[in-house]
Amino acid sequence: MPPIGAQPKDYLLSVEGLTVSFDGFRAVNDLSFYVDENEIRVIIGPNGAGKTTVLDLICGKTAASSGSIRFRDKELTKMSESQIVLAGVGRKFQTPSIYDDLTIFENLEISYPKGRSVWGALTFKRDQAVKDRVQEVAEIIFLKDRLHDNAAFLSHGQKQWLEIGMLLIQDPELLMLDEPVAGMSVSERIKTAELLNTIIKNRSVLVIEHDMKFVEDIAHKVTVLHQGKILSEGSMEKVKNDPKVVEVYLGH
Amino acid sequence: MKLAFLSRRDVLFLAVLAFLLLVVFPFALDGFRLNLVGKYLTYAFAALGLVLCWGYGGILSLGQGVFFALGGYGMAMYLKLEASSVENTKIQSTPGIPDFMDWNQITELPYFWQPFHSFPLTLILILVVPALFAFVIGAAMFKRRVSGVYFAIITQAIAAIMTILIIGQQGYTGGVNGITDLRTLHGWDIRTDSAKFILYFVNAVLLLGVILIAMFVRDSKLGRILVAMRDKEDRVRFSGYSVANFQIFVFCLAGVFAAIGGAMFTLQVGFMSPSLTGIVPSIEMVIYTAVGGRFSLFGAVYGTLAVSFARTSLSESFPQLWLLGLGALFIATVLFFPNGLAGIWRDYVQPTVDRVLKLRGKPSDPAWEAGKSSTAPAE
User: How many Å apart are CA A125 and CA A118, to the nearest integer?
Assistant: First the structure.
């Protein structure tokens, strides 16, 4: 919780009183939390706790019923999805969301932060800076030898990496990852943790994850959601020993 | 024009098509048949638009006839006004207005006909009116995230409404007969054989120009965004693009292409009527595109020619069976050759050609490659 008297603008992201209801069901109920610059925050919680909905609300995929989401000095609840991206928020989806019909190079290039208007896209030049950056990112995501293959031919884990790479090239200030290691093999998981440790530098990250080992490795702070509300928040150590958390989530 | 964006294979295809349209057809065919080919090629403009809009962008429009008509009627209105000089129409009760207006007791040229006195203004309106109309439809639909089947149905409804409107407003539009008895373009008689010959070339060159524009769009980042949007709309949206703007753009572009075709139809065939605006011609345009291969610009041209030739020859012998045949062709294409003629070419002919010519075209066409893995159309 923020110290009393702190100004909201001290935080990169301030979510306050956020509520969304679907046909009367409050998936997220009066939720407030704050994310610092360069903080890695992990959201955990049982199925249906509203974790993905929180990310949907922040990135504009779902409209909030009430409450506010402030990112720096911008109110995200009033902005369109693409404006939110331009403001510096990036989102990775739960299932790998990549363009199967394009090559890995082209997948990455689309996320390159230039030429995002219709005219900009028509006149976009694939210059050396773009090529170098794509090359650089492809190397980080272990796909540099496959730049000109179609993304459809990648394995599940590689697709996850590609999407992470697309976000990396987008260079958001706040990166939101929805279960980045779900469905991965053990070796892929280790590589992904390594990858995430590279890309979380100089930015804030909001991660949803079930893999507790993974959470322990990366989290600065953990927020436990339950039925759309915060059950517990703090360091991993604190959260792990919270009897409420053990009962609804970790105990299983 | 800078052509650096074209791959070697594209240049070769373009050269072959240009040779076919500008040399082979004019020499091999008599005047009547050449004019017929010219008429077919006007539909190819609409098919080219559909390749970008439907094949690449995944937006199936069943109303391209509307834009074809907007272009066609624009040109017809200009020609009709020129043919309705006071001199030519002195037997009418109101000389100087089109004959069908006179028959419908209209005594004054309606305001929306006025700009079509001017040829430059007509040319501008032929491009601007369809673009604006597509923009309005596109903005209304895509900003509300209407897509897929719903969009297709709405465009089809618009085609139906357009036809009803044209037929109903006989005094302003010429009704079910359309606008007929067109004579001269800026004083130049378009009914003579030599005029038809020249118009054929104008049409062919315009078509090649439109193909170049379409290639430019396809090979730009915008082309890749269209493919990406078709596949994962949300990912594109959450990568900072306004998806609706891109959909509106490609829909407008397809509309303008169709309108150019419509204007050239009027010039070459000498009339424009609601039989070319409605649901059936709109769906035929989709069939041309599907048969040619909806991911292939050249396929669209060859598909249009092939289906139109088949239509002419079959409907001469079996007028009742033709529509059934067309339906069967569409079903067969979707089931067995989802990538159309272009797919057959790529899978069976291209490898041999490549071996002979030792061409190593770069795989510049992503949607194309996609066709290999998917067996059914996206919509």
Answer: 14
Specify burial of residue B23 (Cβ count, 10 A radius: 0-12, 13-18, 19+). exposed
Chain B residues within 8 A of A109 when measuring between CB atoms: 221, 224
Task: Give residue B171's domain range.
Answer: 8-279
Q: Which residues of B touch A148 (CB under 8 A)?
A: 363
Minimal CA–CA distance to A17: which of A9, A4, A26, A25? A26
Q: How many CA atoms lie within 13 A of B250 on its CB side?
A: 34
Q: Which residue of B has its CA nearest to A84?
A: B240
Q: What is the pTM of this model?
A: 0.90
| B242 within domain boundaries | yes
Residue type, B57: G
- By Cβ distance, the residue of B225, B243, B370 closest to A110 is B225
CATH classification at residue A195: 3.40.50.300
- What is the tally of structural domains in chain A? 1
Nearest by CB: B238 against A59, A109, A118: A59
Q: Confirm if A180 and A207 have CB atoms less than 8 A apart.
A: yes
Locate tokens 């409605």: which residue?
A: B278
Contact (CB<8Å) A99/B237: no
A99 with B240: Cβ contact below 8 A: no
Q: What pLDDT does B43 receive?
A: 97
Whole-complex ipTM = 0.88
Asked whether residue B262 is domain-assigned, the answer is yes
The stretches in chain A having pLDDT less than 50 are: 2, 6, 8-9
User: Does the residue B20 lie in any domain?
Assistant: yes
Residue A65 lies in a domain: yes
Q: How many domains does chain B have?
A: 1
Which positions in chain A touch B236 (Cβ < 8 Å)?
A: 110
In a domain, B340, yes or no: no
Chain B residues lying within 8 Å of A150, measured CB to CB: 366, 369-370, 373
When pLDDT is cut at 50, 70 and 90, the band that residue B379 belongs to is: very low
**Cα separations (Å) of A169 from A13, A165, B140?**
21, 6, 33
Q: Please, what is the Cα angle at B245 between B247 and B58, to 5 degrees?
A: 15
Is residue A146 one of the residues assigned to a domain?
yes
Q: Under a CB-based contact definition with an 8 Å cutoff, are residues A17 and A37 in contact?
A: no
Which structural domain range is residue A191 located in?
11-250
Write out pLDDT tens, residues B125-164.
999 999 999 999 999 999 999 988 999 999 999 999 999 9
What is the chain A residue with the closest CA to B219?
A122
